[in-house]
Design goal:
The chain is of the alpha/beta class. It has 14 helices and 9 strands. The strands form 2 sheets. The protein has a 6-stranded parallel β-sheet with strand order 3-2-1-4-5-6, sandwiched between helices. Strands 7-8-9 form a 3-stranded mixed β-sheet. α8 links the parallel β8 and β9. α9 crosses α13. The longest helix is centred in the middle third of the chain and has 30 residues. The chain is globular, with a radius of gyration of 20 Å. Keywords: NAD, Oxidoreductase. InterPro entries: 6-PGluconate_DH-like_C_sf, 6PGD_dom2, 6PGDH_NADP-bd, HIBADH-like_NADP-bd, HIBADH-related, NAD(P)-bd_dom_sf. It comes from Peptostreptococcus russellii. Belongs to the HIBADH-related family.
């Protein structure tokens, strides 16, 4: 039986672990709040009390964390992955994080004979649940091929984007596109409301034409149902957009739409909505009415 060590069992990580279990993969996992992952233990995943204990069980180590600081700590701290993984281990970071940090970790991994891949995902918890995530991989080709069967347990579209950090750069392009898309969905529904349209009829109509999109199909119904539970947190989207904007500026790319959307989400987060899903951007427009 294939064995993996998995660190991080949040909204996305939990669903990914479940799919590994469905594929008869033995999963050892560590997460900071054990109480929130009792369902995984009931399904057969093996909880570990520390990162070191977790990674001692497998040479395939996957991380799905929240912020770049978390990634740095888990990989580069004295009690982290780089200093404690078995030689020739494959380290797969599926967090959306800073491409520069990804390169730093990769360089440290090489010094210890470790293989590092950056493999952020897209599809939110919706595609995490049915194992149809899009996986964007930065790695050398041999490492990508070695880990491909692992990716197949959780994803459908699995692309080798290029060397390490190219997975993260592709994810930045993805987040830039989402920023405009979710904003357009929110503004369309807000407009429909303000002019007196039946918003449900409007959604059925425009989602069947050229305006169709993942955000329209999945986020818009939740907005109309006032369901703002997070499949993808506002606070994580703010983090992603900040990274994308930093990278854009460093490469002389002017992204005015991204800048504006980021400001809107930062205002939303400042009002205490950081733990809601990104569809909560609709509240930015509603709050302007009050």
């Amino acid at each position: 039986m294939q064995k993996i060590a998995f660190i991080g069992a949040g909204v996305m990580g939990k669903e990914m672990i479940k799919n590994f279990l469905k594929n008869n993969v033995e999963v050892y996992f560590y997460t900071r709040t054990k109480e929130k992952a009792l369902d995984l233990i009931d399904l057969g995943a093996i909880y570990c009390d520390s990162v070191i204990e977790c990674i001692s069980n497998s040479k395939i180590i996957i991380t799905m964390l929240g912020f770049p600081k978390d990634v740095r700590d888990v990989y580069l701290a004295d009690n982290g992955i780089i200093k404690n993984a078995q030689e020739e281990s494959y380290l797969i970071d599926m967090t959306t994080t800073d491409p520069d940090l990804t390169l730093e970790i990769s360089n440290e991994a090489k010094k210890r004979g470790l293989h590092f891949l950056d493999a952020p995902v897209s599809g939110s918890d919706i595609k995490a649940k049915d194992a149809s995530l899009t996986i964007m991989v930065g790695a050398n080709r041999a490492d990508f091929d070695k880990c491909y069967p692992i990716f197949e347990c959780i994803g459908k579209t699995i692309i080798h984007e290029g060397p390490v950090s190219f997975g993260q750069h592709t994810k930045m392009a993805n987040q830039i596109a989402i920023s405009a898309n979710i904003s357009g969905v929110c503004e369309a529904l807000y407009y429909a409301n303000k002019v007196g349209l039946d918003e449900n009829k409007t959604l059925i109509t425009i989602s069947s034409g050229a305006a169709a999109s993942f955000q329209m199909d999945n986020m818009a119904p939740e907005i109309l149902d006032e369901d703002f539970e997070a499949g993808f947190f506002v606070k994580h989207f703010v983090k992603d957009m900040k990274i994308a904007l930093k990278e854009a500026k460093e490469n002389d790319a002017n992204l005015p739409i991204l800048e504006n959307v980021l400001k809107n989400y930062e205002e939303l987060e400042s009002k205490g909505y950081g733990d809601l899903g990104i569809q909560a951007l609709y509240k930015f427009y509603e709050d302007d009415d009050n």
